[in-house]
Design goal:
The chain has 330 residues and is of the alpha/beta class. Helix content is 38%, strand content 15%.
């Protein structure tokens, strides 16, 4: 039975579930994922009324797009399929750096269409802005994909307010996807969120639970699998995990008072900021817990308490590696 409410994503006509699903961790970065359980989890997400399914050619590379196609190609008309491009890959997956040139835009889109086993990508993002190519040229090529019927709507990821304005002037953006959570709230103060609101562009929040940290399940680095990429992130160093548990514990206390989980409160906070969160998980159990957050509305007093918890102790450690941050445009 479908229970998820829907919402307009931006002002260009796209409607999505109030909470989406980020499929990345099923194929990349977060350790081993059982593929049969991944397929079952993706199908369960659709059963719950989650329509926005997010992937990218970089996740694997290509493995995640193929997994989504394997799981959901027969349910294509039930989902809003979002994927992303930026890093140039050979067809065998060898990377060659970010490429926003028009020729690669077309090549990447055609390849994603093949991997996703679809004729149209509902929402196509530029995963990272190419600093060597004017954004107008990249978005101009994305607009050509829309005109050709290969893409319905376009967006950017991890882009600054200035870049968003320039891109939107070439072709209307439907969404910008960036990291937003109680651990990473800077979009609310650096001009990005206000620019999106002004221009009628939706905000899709990745890592809405602080890459899993805000769920409360990670109390030390030993809680991460040996091949989990989070071990290399500054925020997940042993000393920073220890320092950042103060915010996690504050969220846990508020959640307990509401009869909710810490992760559900973290997701409800993101929704309260006017964003569509796309939490990811490899298992149906956690999926169902996350989906239940879509019906959780935090009171003004609770939102204020969470703001106070954020401001009382600055989060320790950068959200990404120096190289990862350098690749962002925000």
């Amino acid at each position: 039975m479908k229970t998820m409410e829907t919402t307009a994503l931006g002002s260009q006509g796209l409607t999505v579930s109030a909470q989406g699903f980020g499929a990345m961790g099923m194929s990349a970065y977060y350790g081993y994922a059982d593929q049969s359980e991944a397929v079952a989890t993706l199908n369960r997400a659709v059963d719950l009324g989650i329509t926005l399914i997010d992937t990218a050619e970089a996740y694997g590379p290509f493995k995640n797009e193929r997994l989504v196609a394997q799981a959901l190609s027969e349910r294509r008309d039930e989902i809003v399929l979002a994927t992303k491009f930026a890093t140039e890959f050979d067809d065998d997956g060898v990377p060659h750096g970010i490429n926003g040139r028009p020729a690669y835009v077309h090549r990447a889109a055609d390849r994603s269409l093949r991997h996703l086993k679809t004729d149209t990508i509902d929402l196509y993002y530029l995963h990272r802005v190419d600093p060597d190519v004017p954004i107008e040229e990249t978005v101009g090529a994305m607009a050509e994909l829309v005109a050709a019927g290969k893409v319905r709507y376009i967006g950017l990821s991890e882009a600054s307010a200035a870049t968003i304005r320039r891109a939107h002037a070439v072709h209307p953006l439907t969404a910008v996807q960036s990291e937003l959570s109680l651990f990473s709230p800077d979009l609310l103060s650096n001009g990005v969120k206000s620019t999106l609101d002004e221009l009628g562009i939706g905000l899709v929040a990745f890592s809405p639970m602080g890459r899993g940290f805000l769920s409360g399940a990670i109390r030390s680095v030993d809680d991460l699998a040996p091949d989990d990429a989070r071990r290399g992130l500054p925020r997940f160093s042993p000393e920073n995990i220890s320092a950042n548990l103060r915010l996690v514990d504050a969220i846990r206390e508020l959640a307990a008072a509401r009869g909710a989980t810490s992760g559900q409160v973290a997701l409800a906070w993101v929704e309260a900021q006017g964003a569509v969160p796309i939490p990811g998980t490899k298992r149906r159990t956690y999926l169902e817990e996350n989906a239940a957050a879509a019906g959780l509305e935090l009171s003004p007093a609770e939102l204020l308490a969470l703001d106070d918890a954020m401001s009382s102790g600055q989060v320790q450690g950068a959200r990404d590696t120096p190289g990862g941050l350098a690749a962002t445009n925000r």
